[in-house]
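Sorry to interrupt, but I need a hand with the structure work. Could you write out one complete protein record for me, on any chain you like? Could you add the entry underneath, on a fresh line?
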Amino acid sequence: MKKILLIFSLAISTLILAQQKPTLFLIGDSTMANKDNPDKNPEHGWGQVLPQFFTTGIEIQNHAMNGRSSKSFRTEGRWDKVEKQLKKGDFVIIQFGHNDQKFKDSTKFTNPYTQYRANLERYVNETRAKGAIPILMTSITRRNFNENGVLIDTHKEYPLVVRMVADDMKVAFVDMQLLTEQLEISYGPEKSKLLHLHFKAGENAYYDKDKADDTHLSRLGAESVAKLAVKSLKTMKTGLEKYIK
């Protein structure tokens, strides 16, 4: 009788596990993060609007957080919260770089070719160890046009290192730097302000002073960037594509 109950219990557990939805975890910085007061706040992270492009067959957890680097995301215990939940069939999008550049902040800065690379490799390895699938992404570009209307890169070596890790470790990869550069250029020096946060004092109730932020995204910018990410993800054979609308 005990043996029958044990077999029955194992069968139920297996069935429950089989019925569990996969989860897509997002880890990164403010350009991806959820923002407070989304109904009033003009700023949106692209990960914040991502769920609208996916079916209900997958859960999305956005763990991206303002100001975090590949280093501080781990040292603050944020990765630990994700890693503990990871199961076979889950996905993890990894996108850092903006804050790894902050050489005046020892809690965030990483040398691109040593610490940054090692951090990315560790996220990939620990994700795979849980049976989940890592997806590496380069940082989205900043709106940084010069006087001649040329978009100037601000990320330096960091996106290159992401490409190198993706290639060396055979990781699914989306070049968001390239895609968002193309987006910014298509809008041009002036209209691209609509993708970001450009307001005169009093123009938007959320800001009482002039706002000119070329790093973070408006809702239009967030949705545009999310669409680019989803379009690329849909072409990959990771298994994630079957949950994309």
